[in-house]
TrEMBL record:
<feature type="transmembrane region" description="Helical">
    <location>
        <begin position="16"/>
        <end position="39"/>
    </location>
</feature>
<feature type="transmembrane region" description="Helical">
    <location>
        <begin position="414"/>
        <end position="433"/>
    </location>
</feature>
<dbReference type="GO" id="GO:0016020">
    <property type="term" value="C:membrane"/>
</dbReference>
<feature type="transmembrane region" description="Helical">
    <location>
        <begin position="156"/>
        <end position="175"/>
    </location>
</feature>
<keyword id="KW-1133">Transmembrane helix</keyword>
<dbReference type="Pfam" id="PF00324">
    <property type="entry name" value="AA_permease"/>
</dbReference>
<feature type="transmembrane region" description="Helical">
    <location>
        <begin position="355"/>
        <end position="378"/>
    </location>
</feature>
<protein>
    <submittedName>
        <fullName>GABA permease</fullName>
    </submittedName>
</protein>
<dbReference type="GO" id="GO:0006865">
    <property type="term" value="P:amino acid transport"/>
</dbReference>
<feature type="transmembrane region" description="Helical">
    <location>
        <begin position="45"/>
        <end position="63"/>
    </location>
</feature>
<keyword id="KW-0813">Transport</keyword>
<feature type="transmembrane region" description="Helical">
    <location>
        <begin position="84"/>
        <end position="103"/>
    </location>
</feature>
<feature type="transmembrane region" description="Helical">
    <location>
        <begin position="123"/>
        <end position="144"/>
    </location>
</feature>
<dbReference type="GO" id="GO:0055085">
    <property type="term" value="P:transmembrane transport"/>
</dbReference>
<feature type="transmembrane region" description="Helical">
    <location>
        <begin position="390"/>
        <end position="408"/>
    </location>
</feature>
<dbReference type="InterPro" id="IPR004840">
    <property type="entry name" value="Amino_acid_permease_CS"/>
</dbReference>
<feature type="domain" description="Amino acid permease/ SLC12A">
    <location>
        <begin position="15"/>
        <end position="388"/>
    </location>
</feature>
Amino acid sequence: MTRDTVSGHTLKNRHIAMIALGGVIGAGLFVGSSSAIAIAGPAVLLAYVLCGGLVMVVMRMLGEMVMRQPGRGSFVEYIRAAYGNRWGFVAGWMYWFFWVVAMGSEAIAGGLLLQEWTGLPPYMLAIGIILVLMAVNLCSVDVFGECEFWLSLTKVASILLFVVMGVGFVLHLFGPRLPVGANYVGHGGLAPNGITVVLAVIPTIMFSMIGSEVATVAAAESANPQAGVARVTRSIGVRVTIFYLASVMLVLAIVPWDHVVPGKSPFVAAMTVMGVPGAATIMRLVVFSAILSCLNSSLYITSRILSELARGGNAPAVLALRSRQGAPRLALGASALAGLVVALCSVLSPNLLFSFLLSCSGGVILLVYMMIAFSYLLLMRGENAAGRNWQGYLSIGGIGIVFAAMLLDPTERMTALASLMTGVFFICLFDGWRMLARRQQRTRTQAGCL
């Protein structure tokens, strides 16, 4: 093993673009959108526009910071540069925690999906899935990139195919000639439950659209990190918003919003109306590919963030070691083990420990986004940033509104409070880590004097 700071420049631009796009297209769109539609009706489209706008602004800020100060590393290093080691520590560990919980959740979801075909216990299948994808990540980074490229391409192609079919159905090019356009206003109007419910569904939608910032980490392992990040951050927010808006808009045109069942894929319902044979099986395969993609990305991002934290002295130094292939094996193993623990918690204590972990991780990514916005305002001061501070203020205000909506919603209030408590926990953890490091330094100094 070596202490190289990068794992070899082997990711191509197509890998980075698809990793960024695939990171935000998952089960949250294919299944999770059902809850938002059932609550807000057609007005959910406004919530998707608002959330997509926030993602676009955050990605644009990241791109500008990378162009202004290239070569720092992931976005965590920009937070560290702006506000010091404490906030770099907090941002990095909160981000790692968020993806570890996502890893465990997706693994058990994949296990439940495979159980229908194999009959094996979900926890065994979840462990198997994580181990297989861990083996992929132990190879060189181009193997991970190629695997993630095709998994993400499967999701993107599925959405594009659905959009093409949906447009054809709406235009009466095939299938029964139903008055599909009337579904927008024929079941209580555009906002059947009031316009204020848009705020209630924003947290759910926001969490499903998070993940494109992974590109800033992946780009560090490409031939030209600065150009790679700049290219992706300029376009990813627009692409994500278009994908989500177009697909959900067609679902609402084909299926009356009050026929959508929370927890069941609205895409299956739409394909059934269009007369697509085997719609449920097709969507099950698409969702499984989305789960594999999310797990693959989770293992990659957690291992790289943990390795970066170790290089900065904010995690055990041994986690910075890399194999000959360039993979941070120990950081990868630690992250995979943590993900397995989360998956097992969902089996051993689903209503207590697992629920608590989900609540704690639910809003921490929004706190990280807010830290990115504050860092942008500080690092981009000066004449080159004149007139563009609105992006930082808009992001901070938007995230503040999301947290306010969560606190006002009884079903999301605990998630908001637990996320804030998680942030406080990592702040205290930094103080403990710093005290330990100082004590070890004094011990080494005293030993050297003897």
